[in-house]
Design brief:
two-stranded antiparallel ribbon; 6-stranded mixed sheet; alpha+beta
Length: 160
């Protein structure tokens, strides 16, 4: 998404500054001080919650988009970036990211707040990712006959 270039805030809040590429931010916006740059436009990726079950781990990840626009239809930039992100990550519903993270097909977006802090616009995507992993369950489960024999053979193969 390095080809996405959007306006930044100019010297005053009502005029746009130079256009620049999206900043990608991990988890939270940096602490603002007098000398810091305006982080807009940005894409922020944050893990919100997780549930681990016996056979899989699910992680809810928010992707928050922030844009600047002095006009009243500035939300369109944020919406277009959200649509672009959605289109970029949709293939991970079929092929896992890094061969382990599966994107569940339900992707939601929201405006995060009813009152957008003009001239800044924010939207968020909610995604859920899953990692499948086997957990060795022994004792009392069906089809565990021969497990001791398997463990012995494995130890012998590994340790001689």
């Amino acid at each position: 998404m390095t080809d996405v270039v959007l306006p930044t805030r100019g010297s005053n809040i009502e005029t746009p500054g130079e256009s620049r590429q999206l900043k990608f931010i991990d988890s939270y916006l940096p602490i603002k001080n007098n000398n810091s740059d305006d982080p807009y436009p940005f894409v922020m990726v944050r893990a919100d919650s997780s549930v681990a079950e016996s056979e899989k781990l699910q992680i809810v990840v928010s992707i928050i988009v922030g844009t600047f626009a002095a006009d009243s239809v500035g939300f369109r930039d944020a919406l277009n970036v959200c649509s672009r992100i959605r289109n970029e990550i949709l293939p991970f519903t079929q092929t896992p990211l890094d061969q382990k993270f599966h994107l569940l097909p339900k992707i939601e977006w929201d405006t995060l707040t009813d009152d957008q802090p003009w001239p800044y616009w924010q939207m968020g995507l909610k995604t859920t990712w899953a990692i499948d992993f086997p957990i060795n369950k022994t004792g009392g489960l069906p089809n565990t006959d021969g497990l001791d024999d398997y463990n012995e053979k494995l130890k012998k193969a590994l340790y001689g």
